[in-house]
Write a structure and sequence with these properties.
It contains 11 helices and 13 strands. The chain starts with 8 loop residues before the first helix and ends with a strand. The strands form 2 sheets. It has a 7-stranded mixed beta sheet, sandwiched between helices. It has a 6-stranded mixed beta sheet with strand order 6-7-8-9-11-12, sandwiched between helices. The longest helix is centred in the C-terminal third of the chain and has 18 residues, at about 300-320. The protein has helices at about 10-15, 20-25, 35-50, 55-60, 85-95, 140-150, 170-185, 200-215, 235-245, 255-270, 300-320, and strands at about 65-70, 95-105, 130-135, 150-155, 165-170, 190-195, 250-255, 280-285, 295-300, 325-330, 330-335, 345, 350-354. By secondary structure, the chain is α/β, with parallel strands linked by helices.
Length: about 350
Amino acid sequence: MRPRKKVKLADIAKKSGVSIVTVSNALAGRGGVSEEVRARIEACANELGYRREDVKQDVREEKLYISVLSSEERKECLQEGSAFMACLESAAEKQSVVLSTGYLNGRLIAHAPGIHWLSDRKGIVRTDGILVYGSLPSASLRALADFFKIPIIGYGFTDRDVEIDYILDDSFRGMRRAVRHLVELGHRDLIYFSEEIGDDKVLMDRYLGFWHAMYEYKLIDPMEIPGKVQFPEYGPEVLIRRIREGNVPDAVVCSSDETAALAERLLDEYSLRVPGDVSLTGYRSSDREEEEPHFSSCVIPLSLHAEKCLELLRKRITRGGIPDGARFLDCRFTSRTSTGEHKDSTVGVGDIYG
């Protein structure tokens, strides 16, 4: 007797004329599928001889097609050979995922029917899930969700007005680790240095993480903790004023490696050495890799970001579920020459948590 040929979700999707996501949801009894479509899918499944006990094996073996999108301004980050795409492609190979890339240009901002960017260098048009790289306007993000009705993950940003999953690094906890590192080196007079925060939630989390750690180590008066009434200064004017007053801080905690580089230049103008006179910490953004980072920084390996993005998308595609909102990756702090440490030492291995 010849062995039975296992029927896959893709076979049912092709026969019933719907996506693999719709097939998965229909056969699992999840919502979001009309009764008419559900009945058609079940009929096709029965006709092909699909067995429900094969679902887990099918999900594990089935290839999923994921489109990685960005705004037109950030499309170069998704080009072949870029650091993040290299990590995504490596993770995709391990997780049986086929990637395509695209971007939204300005003319398509809030017009869902006109979104036709789901094609790339491989000519892939099927899409089971979407990974949005970098923030999009709320209208565009909502258009994606409403028009395609498939799982979407936002990477590196959050939007309180659009209910999808988001993955980003835990800037609040990361900044606390930077302060802890400096305290362990014996520093007590620390100031914060950042670009304009505005409405940027990530930058605000870093700012608040610094002040929370300062309070935790009893380095500030509780009245100095940022709140609705006041937000302590954090720009270059604070550092310049302290230097001119002859009250040079022990260390400058910066919101990014870019601001750390600016702080280093300002210190150099006043003949202050890093780390001899002042220690610096930065924060490496997750969308770039440096071969020889100079600053002691909080960072999460891009490979971990890529793996977690695809893992969560696979979970949503195959098992469904309500979006959790923001999920955070725990930061790792690596000390290097800008704080006087000349060997790598890491604190906290990143992982995802709710």
